Amino acid sequence: MILSIEPAARIQGDLTVPSDKSLSHRATLLGALATGVTRVGNFLWSADCLATVRCLRGLGIRIEQEPCGDLLVHGRGLRGFAAPDSTLDCGGSGTTMRLLSGILAGQLFTSALTGSEALRRRPMDRVIEPLRRMGADIHGREDRFPPLQIRGGNLHGVAYRLPMASAQVKSAILLAALYADSPTVVIEPAPTRDHTERMVSALGIAVAVNGVEITLDPKEVLQTALPPMNVLVPGDLSSAAFFLVAACLLPGSELWLRDVGVNPTRTGLIDVLRQMGADIGLAKEHLVSGEPVADIYVRASDLRGVEIGGETVPRMIDEFPILAVAATQADGTTVVRDAAELRVKESDRISTLAAELRRMGARIEEQPDGFVIEGPTRLCGAEVEAHHDHRLAMSLAVAGLLAEGQTRISGAECIADSFPDFELTLSRITQRRS
Ligand code: S3P
Q1: SS (H, E, C) 363-402
Q2: Pocket test for ligand 1, best of 24, 93, 95 (most atoms within 8 A of CB)
Q3: Which atom of ligand 1 is nearest to the CA of 196?
Q4: SS3 helix, strand, coil % of the chain, rounded to 5?
Q5: Tens of pLDDT along 370-420?
Q6: Which of 154, 262, 301, 337 would bridge with 279, disulfide CB 3.0–4.6 Å?
Q7: For the CA of 22, the nearest atom of ligand 1
Q8: Distance from C-alpha of 104 to C-alpha of 86, rounded to nearest angstrom
């Protein structure tokens, strides 16, 4: 599918963005581990989250969609899954494959996980290695890539130092740790999104967080029925990010984004944009299902270049494509370092970003662990490619709003992985240039 974007004058309005993807996955998975019916309000009906639903159904879990859009998960307890009679298809969703691997490591049957061509190129040794150490029999193609074959076992607690800052790997280990006969400690190189810790704690399981060290004590968890939950998923800051940046950059723009998750492990982009000179405010901050939520207000302003590295990187790991678009319009140099993880996302985001933004006239130089952008540049509409990467596609769409002439993004169907209504939402708040 080709998405055509015309230049915009400004954006204006009041918006609720799609529900949080990370939380939708986790609420569904943990709902399946509980005993009884978990209700996931505001579940994100996107391709990635539906992959989690499909896999759980393949494991014998009943999942229903309520007329209001809520998801009902009929949890069968930690060991209530049925052995699947075919390979589980994770589609393009790395979160599904990695988090589910942690759960399957605790099951006393063999299962296999595969996914789209793009997912089958993404590294899984990062979960194979710790889950194997915990006692699971787990193999991948070349011991590194999907498909994965997992024979769960009686697991042991481990102390595991993560080689990379990854919430998916941390979560896989913590989910496997529920099945272990002793506590597990995960040590992160830098804090990553802590949704799993929050939700597992809400189920009454002891999770102690001490800086970057997370300890889960599974004492008697296997003998206990976990209570079903009532989770309300807030808006996804990673989806709000595209409009946040568009409103910063298009002169005269003014936008409210309602009920967005503002967990501090996710708000790196807001901090960085403010450092660049953005006019962003938060209102009505409160907790929903144990997660911080707020309304976000943004108004156009002039931005300047910024340096990003260290602990900020995992706090905005999905926002670098849209940050790069902001940097093309900022005055001066923007430098991103310590972000080599971008190379193993839905696409190699360092090289795809550089290639596609250059086609639109950006001055961007690739680095092994990031990029350097010189701004401001006048972008021009171009034929660009999404590379199976929803966040790259939506970032290019925002670049298209700023450009001279039409931008055509091919392969834009991947936007449905996280934001099926993106085009409609964008057209609702965009005012055309006259
Ligand atoms: C996610 C963690 C991040 C992020 C991904 C969702 C999660 O991946 O990029 O979109 O839900 O845990 P990594 O754990 O690979 O950094």
Answers
A1: EEEEECCEEEEEECCCCECCEEECCCCHHHHHHHHHHHHH
A2: 95
A3: 12
A4: 35, 30, 35
A5: 999 999 999 999 999 999 999 999 999 999 999 999 999 999 999 999 999
A6: 301
A7: 11
A8: 14
